[in-house]
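Ticket closed. Logging final result for Ribosomal protein L9 domain-containing protein.
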Amino acid sequence: MPPRLRPSLIPQCLSCARSYVEAGTAGWKPLFGLGGQTRGIAKDKDKSISVQLLKATAGYGKQGRYVPVARGVMRSKWFPNKIARYAVGEELKAIRDGKIIVGRDYEFDTREQPKPVEVELVAEEVEVEALQEAPKVQKVKGIEPQRAMDLLGVLLPQRLDFVRAPRGEAPDVIDQTIPIFGSVSTADIVQEIRSLLAHNDEAARITLDERDIEFVDVKLEDPTRVKHLGMFAIKILVKGSDQWPVERKVQVIAQGES
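Final structure:
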């Protein structure tokens, strides 16, 4: 039979009992690591960045509001789920200058909905009203020219490559005097840009026209197309934008070149 504790040794209150237990287990903490250990944690993912909400979010605010959020949360949750988008270009400058206010609305609750207005209608009026309020198919809207230019500047590579068959033997180096079968036109460039932007939901809505592409610093018989190998400079300017054009290179290489 285990020995009985004397009544005088039994804790008489909750605080005494807690102190009694902690005193008995304090010596074991270093042995089993119960004291806790703080490991190095990467802090970069916790740094806040400025983003714009694409959806109303509880504790942050309504759609369109600029809010700070941890970089890791934006990268792994918000951006893939289309909750927010990154602020870029002129937006970042406006934020730095204080023209765009970035801040959370901690009291915002997405569950708050306007109360429906109770209206008594006769049967015929209800039927007509239901037909009028039938959901309409929403058309996919384009984006503003200024925003389109920002995205083009960020997402497009510096060089766009096109492969064409030369008229004759393929040269060892790019020679702008060698003609090609067919051509590379502004329409081809627009199509290539659209395919490059297709992976980004926002950039895929950019409305780009052949007239927004211009070959520069080269004399061409047809200003809308090149018909020989070489490297050519182009300017991209979305209609309605007052920004500087986005400048890129178009390289026409011979079929079979590496």
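Residues 54 and 82 are 7 Å apart (CA to CA). No further action required.
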